[in-house]
Amino acid sequence: MQNDIRNLEAEIITLLKKDIIDSWCGFIREKPRIVPNAKMVRVGSNYQAEVFLYPIYDASFFDVIVEEKELPLIDGKRIYTAIPSSPGTYYWKGTLQIKGPKGIAKYPFEEKYEAF
């Protein structure tokens, strides 16, 4: 019985989250947030950046497309990873997409980092 109650509680929370997300899709005026591990990285080391849309932190409710590929969902986050091969400025861009009641809402973004 306790398991049934917990399962029902989880289903209700998921439905409430979905309803909130669906209602926000028409009102969100924010742009995607990019939180990098650093603005400058050493050649051959990892550059990583988390992509999300404030106030929606749960990455399972949106997709992030970079270079025509969807960023994987890792530990509840959408993380872009790159390894620069030579010094210079690297640009990357993509689109954060949320499925809502009126279709797919798209939020484009662009970011850069330096390699030394």
What does this structure look like?
The protein has 116 residues and is of the alpha+beta class. It has a single domain (2-115), classed as S-adenosyl-L-methionine-dependent methyltransferases, CATH 2.20.130. Helix content is 20%, strand content 45%. The protein has one helix and nine strands; from the N terminus they run H-E-E-E-E-E-E-E-E-E. It has one helix spanning 2-24, and strands at residues 33-36, 40-41, 47-52, 63-66, 69-70, 73-74, 77-82, 88-100, 103-115. It has a five-stranded mixed beta sheet, with helices on one face. It has a four-stranded antiparallel beta sheet with strand order 1-3-7-6, with no helix packed on it. A hairpin with a 2-residue loop joins strand 8 and strand 9.
Strand percentage: 35-45%
Calculate the terminal CA-CA distance, rounded to whole Å: 59 Å
The oligomeric state of the chains shown is: single chain
Task: Give a count of the beta strands, DSSP E runs of length 2 or more.
Answer: 9
Mean pLDDT: 80
CATH architecture: Single Sheet
The number of domains is 1
